[in-house]
Design brief:
Strand content: 25-35%
Number of helices: 5
Mean pLDDT: 79
Distance between the termini: 21 Å
Shape: globular
Structural class: alpha+beta
């Protein structure tokens, strides 16, 4: 109901008013299958929201929303320069050993920022019980609006440059077949896409406790491997055991570990919820 209201009134609302509607949506959710209880349970808190004088830029802790330009910039740090990857981006102090960058903003706030830009959350890959058929489950594929993912880094002249995330990922060294033979001859096998799905993680509420946004707990912000609680994911399912470790860091254009960079998320506008015109 709240999302329908947002769609109907979109063009009549100021950015600040839109965000006040979007934020509660990032705090709500229904789990189809109960996840394992997290060891720590950080809660989703209302962020300190600031708006520029023009209303074209909104700021939350660790991120800025460019309303007119239609993208979100998330403060991040490079945390890996070599090795295999399970994630593109993780929450800070979680999975830096298997992710290119660690984001400084809460995943729940990134979710809210994407809602502001009219991206539609779907779901990560999951199993759902079949109603009326005890013990039977159905596998649901990941879905959600398409979001293009970039890193903004400095070039050799110190000028900020937007690069697709695929520039920082390549096929790992180990494997068999023609593609790996090509790699041995010096040809890189690049990551095939910089477009991910706005899966939307899950919100978990146990008993009387406050709601918990699972991507903030487990750290799975933008995933290559499938965990089932990621904020952004690929359209395919890829295991996160050793046999699923296929992609590795390409550090050719990547700054040193610890360098501050911007994670830029640009929802594809053709995939966003349409706004209804006033009569």
């Amino acid at each position: 109901m709240m999302y329908s209201m947002l769609r109907a009134k979109w063009e009549t609302l100021s950015p600040g008013r839109i965000l006040s509607v979007c934020m509660p949506l990032a705090l709500m959710g229904i789990l189809s299958a109960e996840p394992e209880k997290a060891e720590t349970t950080p809660t989703v808190e209302k962020p300190d929201i600031k708006m520029s004088e023009t209303g074209e830029e909104l700021s939350l802790p660790g991120l800025k929303i460019q309303v007119k330009e239609h993208y979100v910039d998330v403060d991040s740090k490079v945390c890996l320069s070599e090795g295999f990857l399970e994630l593109i981006a993780c929450a800070k102090d979680t999975k830096e050993h298997e992710s290119i960058i660690a984001v400084q903003a809460k995943a729940a706030h990134i979710h809210a920022a994407l809602l502001l830009l009219r991206a539609q959350p779907g779901n990560p890959a999951m199993r759902k019980p079949i109603e009326g058929q005890e013990g039977r489950w159905v596998d649901l594929p990941p879905r959600g609006s398409k979001v293009d993912v970039f890193l903004v880094v400095e070039d050799e002249n110190g000028k900020p440059v937007e690069r697709p995330i695929s520039d920082f990922i390549m096929k790992g060294d180990e494997g068999y077949g023609p593609e790996f033979e090509a790699r041995e001859k010096g040809a890189k096998i690049p990551f095939p896409t910089h477009t991910f799905l706005f899966a939307g993680s899950h919100v978990y509420k146990q008993g009387e406790g406050p709601p918990v946004y699972l991507a903030d707990v487990d750290g799975n912000v933008i995933s290559i491997s499938t965990f089932g609680d990621e904020l952004l994911c690929l359209p395919d399912v890829l295991g996160h055991g050793n046999e699923g470790l296929v992609w590795a860091v390409d550090s050719t254009h990547l700054p040193e570990i610890g360098t501050k960079v911007l994670l830029r998320l640009r929802p594809q506008q053709s995939d966003a919820a349409p706004a209804e015109k006033k009569d």
